[in-house]
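B., you asked whether I could sanity-check this one before it goes into the benchmark set. Here's the sequence:
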Amino acid sequence: MTAIVNVSLKAGVLDSQGKAVHHALDSLQFSGVEDVRVGKQIVLQLAETDKEKAMAEVTKMCEEILANTVIEDYKIELV
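And here's what the prediction gave me:
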């Protein structure tokens, strides 16, 4: 089973990398972009075949190491 974890900064947290990308896009004449937020995607190949157990396991991974839950949100998709 594959788990796809998307991690992004919480609303209201300054995204300095997003601001830098936005500035670069502006300087390259991509003027239609109103805002940029940069996140990360983590793809995990799991041995677990039970979706509930896999979700619980990946949630624990996110809470303990994959995301900084003070400033980041995460979403898990199992495929």
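One thing to flag: The two ends are 6 Å apart (CA to CA). Otherwise nothing jumped out at me.
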